[in-house]
Amino acid sequence: EDKVVQSPLSLVVHEGDTVTLNCSYEVTNFRSLLWYKQEKKAPTFLFMLTSSGIEKKSGRLSSILDKKELFSILNITATQTGDSAVYLCAVHTNAGKSTFGDGTTLTVKP
Amino acid sequence: GAVVSQHPSWVICKSGTSVKIECRSLDFQATTMFWYRQFPKQSLMLMATSNEGSKATYEQGVEKDKFLINHASLTLSTLTVTSAHPEDSSFYICSARDPGVYTFGSGTRLTVV
Predict the structure, then answer these.
(1) Is A22 part of the contact surface with chain B (CB cutoff 8 Å)?
(2) Touching check for B106 and chain A: CB below 8 Å?
(3) Cβ contact, residue pair B43, A88, below 8 Å
(4) If you measure CA to CA, which chain B residue comes closest to A4?
């Protein structure tokens, strides 16, 4: 059975801190790993990772994948209160299936 | 970028009635769409994969007769919750794949009273 585990489950930091969110997976026929940010409604896409070792960056957010050790991290530097959200990691397989982790709830305090 | 439109955003219905949720890909064709359910403070649970022109593939534990999925065109998939009960109250989200990237609809909050 495909499995995606995110850690920590919940995190509270202060503005300006840097956070690292983790996502480890065990799936058959890995295709890609995606990170999403979910605030009040549906998730919004952040990154898609398919190759090991290539960092994807968007502003203060960055992410990298390690296909050998089967994990990915999402980094957020200089956090702001607007970064407060649930961050979801999903792994998609060549069979077209997607498995989501339970998410990491990030709270950034002013 | 790809846009997926989902309607309605929220719906309240009486127990025993049916509710239809629509998911449309606005600027691309989606041969495959996915339907998820999300309970409060939990992650998304894949319910079924909707394939254009053929039967949906349901995940284990999801009742096919209760959650009817129709994918009649390349841009529209519908989920009908039949004979809804309070325990069906949840947040339902669809997504479609536009090569590689999964784009989500805005979700439907269903409350059954």
Answers:
(1) no
(2) yes
(3) yes
(4) B43
Strand ranges in chain A using DSSP code E only, listed in sequence order: 3-7, 10-14, 19-26, 30-38, 44-49, 56-58, 61-66, 71-76, 85-93, 98-100, 104-109
Q: What is the distance in angstroms between the Cα of B49 and the nearest Cα belonging to chain A?
A: 8
Q: What is the dihedral of CA B61, A95, B49, A42, to 10 degrees?
A: 100
What pLDDT does B11 receive? Answer: 94
Distance separating alpha carbons of residues A91 and A74, to the nearest angstrom: 14
pLDDT tens for A70-102 read 999 999 999 999 999 999 999 988 877 788 898
pLDDT value of residue A92: 87
